[in-house]
Amino acid sequence: MEKVEIFTKLLLPSRLGSAVFQLCLEHLIKNHKVGISWDGIWELSDWEVADNEVVLKMVGQCSAPADSKSKDLKRLFDLLRPYYDQEGKDPHLFFEHLKFDFTDVLKTIVTDAKWEWFWKYLLNHVFVMPPTGNTY
Asked: How far is it, in rounded angstroms, from Cα 108 to Cα 110?
């Protein structure tokens, strides 16, 4: 299996970058649903494309602390933020909305039912969805 670097300054602030971001979210959420987390301890260099999926190559913790899901999601946002939040440039479309969700809304998610709702919401977030003009 060959490692493919997926995070670059050219790739991320684009439609393809949003798709990669969504694939990372899908991987984290899929693992969170079965109780696996990394407690926010990973770098962008720990992601790779393997078997047609974007995955964290590190082994996650099976008995992760309760707040570890939040730490993983916050880590993803914090590491990708510099690619989008560039001084002197307008923010990427819907990035400010995503920032609010990852900084303020994430603090309010405490029950399993709220996590289920938030995961669905993130996977369909306007930031990662294609423009409506591309759907036809």
From this structure: 6
CB atoms within 10 A of CB 104: 9
Beta pairing class for 53-56 and 47-50: antiparallel
SS (H, E, C) the chain: CCCCCCCCCCCCCCHHHHHHHHHHHHHHHHHHHCCCECCCCCCHHHEEEECCEEEECCCCECCCCCCHHHHHHHHHHHHHHHHHCCCCCCCCCCHHHHHHHHHCHHHHCCCHHHHHHHHHHHHCCCCCCCCHHHCC
pTM of the entire predicted model: 0.79
Residues 6+ apart with CB under 8 A from 9: 83
Query: Residue written as tokens 């603090």?
Result: 107
Mean pLDDT across 70-83? 85
